[in-house]
Amino acid sequence: MSGKGKGKRGAGRRKPQPQPQPQPQVVSEIVERLKGEYPEARCSLEHVDPYQLLVATILSAQCTDERVNLVTPALFRRYPDAESLAEGRPEEVEELIRSTGFFRNKTKSLLGMAGAVVERHGGRVPETMEELTSLPGVGRKTANVVLGNAFHQSVGVVVDTHVRRLSQRLDLTASDDPEVIEQDLMKVVPQEDWTDVSHLLIYHGRAVCKAQKPRCGDCVLSDLCPSAFAV
Ligand code: SF4
Q: What residues are labeled active site?
């Protein structure tokens, strides 16, 4: 390349990407309308305590919550707490979770997580982002699920495939990166709604704003959505 034209206005530079700037009142309206549509929205992973939710969330990677809910009753009967799971035989755990996919890696994560919970935290699931994300197999998304739903702490927003798609369609983010999307949502959604907004977007993504054929004609957000009838 000759470098000809270097220094001329705009030459060789990437055009800056326009950043969406959702209005706070629009975002509040979106959240309120979704609350009206899905008053029952909650975490779909069945659990009775933080340990069960942590295990179920690890299993939910690349798997539906329905499938995880089919597998966990037998798993929790066999391993009711971190102590028992830490002692588990890998082959047995693999067999119990096989149908959730990636079962060898998930078994390693479950056994590593349980061992660390026993060794470092006396068998109790820790309650901070830092401690949770230092456990084997636990990333920010999993930690957010546990903190928001088992400990009722709003420290972040869970970004799954539905949350990512709807945030983009609603122009709440311009990013494809879950961590950036989370930060974008945290800027515009009131903190007390951080846990709920994720459930609400997931419910709406499953019921109406589907990946392939969003049902914009049936959508309570169509007058607020920049992508309405255009996907
Ligand atoms: S109007 Fe259409 S694209 Fe926008 S949120 Fe509703 S279903 Fe999704």
A: 141, 160
